[in-house]
Amino acid sequence: MSETSAAFVRLHARLAPVAFVPEVLLHQADEPIGLWQLTEGEFRSEQPPPFWAFAWAGGQALARYLLDHPDEVAGRRVLDFASGSGLVAIAAARAGARHVRAVEIDERAGAAIELNAKANDVPVDITVADILDDDGAGDADLVLAGDVFYSQAMANRVLRFLLRAARGGARVLVGDPDRAFLPRNRFGKLAAYDVPVPPALESVRVKPTTVWELDPGRPGAAG
User: Fold this and answer.
1) What is the pTM of this model?
2) CA distance 133 to 150
3) How confident is the model at residue 222 (pLDDT cuts 50, 70, 90)?
4) 146 forms bridges with which residues in the sheet?
5) Degrees (nearest 5) of the Cα angle 40, 86, 108?
6) CB atoms within 10 A of CB 7
7) DSSP characters over 27-95
8) 211 - beta bridge partners?
9) Where residue 109 falls among pLDDT bands split at 50, 70, 90?
10) pLDDT tens string 2-59
11) Who is most buried in 7, 11, 76, 214, counting CB within 10 A?
């Protein structure tokens, strides 16, 4: 973790409990729009938006599910893809995962995950890289992804990666608040929640959100 990225996270986000998962503390932005605008210009020069600064609905639902159903994760090797703040990775570690790896493409997200894991006193290995073209999920037997189907281009790449992971033997769970590009026909529903969210980001205070399991054998699942 670079000290510059860590300092940026500490400056722009405050450590506080997550609304739907109060067992977990995260560095979260008090004023989302200001931080988004601050990083927007950098995004045009390859700095991603500050997804790490918010507890998104899909991640909150998936984290809640893991903590309420620790048998789903206990003793497993976990990959949390597009980890953002690290919320889902931290929940997996708290639920008894054998090993947790969080993957992000944003160095600041990597710093946020490290700071958040330390704040929650759990071990999380962090990879800052684009792994979507990799053959699979490595040695992970459980792959987790919250709120990853927010654009068509991202959804297509993510689905192909998750399918490779599932066909390689990993179980794949996704948290999603009915984003437009979620390929629902490829998933089976595990749980549903009403998740509190920042109105400035979602235009509502509560998002109905589902935890899904990928079924690589479903019709249309070639990829």
Assistant:
1) 0.92
2) 19
3) very low
4) 175
5) 35
6) 11
7) EE-SSHHHHHHHHHHHHTTTPPP-GGGS--HHHHHHHHHHHH-GGGTTT-EEEEET-TTSHHHHHHHHT
8) 175, 191
9) very high
10) 899 999 999 989 999 999 999 999 999 986 655 656 555 443 435 567 889 999 999 9
11) 214
Residues 6+ apart with CB under 8 A from 177: 56, 57, 58, 61, 147, 195, 197, 202, 207, 208, 209, 210
pLDDT digits (tens, 9 = 90+) for 175-199: 999 999 999 999 999 999 999 998 8
Please count the CA atoms within 13 angstroms of the CA of 6 that sit on its side-chain side: 8
Instruction: Copy the structure tokens of residue 154.
Output: 């991202």
In total, the chain counts a number of residues equal to 223
- As a whole number of angstroms, the distance between CA 164 and CA 43 comes to 29
Instruction: Using alpha carbons, list the distances in angstroms from residue 137 to 41, 81, 175, 197.
Output: 33, 9, 18, 30
Phi-psi region of 8 (alpha: psi -120 to 50; beta: other; left: phi over 0): alpha
- The three-class DSSP label of residue 152 is helix
Query: Which residue is associated with the tokens 């789903």?
Result: 72
- Coil, helix or strand for 127? strand
Question: In this structure, are strands 25-28 and 125-128 parallel, antiparallel, or unpaired?
Answer: unpaired
Closest CA to 66 of 211, 187, 163, 199: 211
Structure tokens at 127: 């990879």
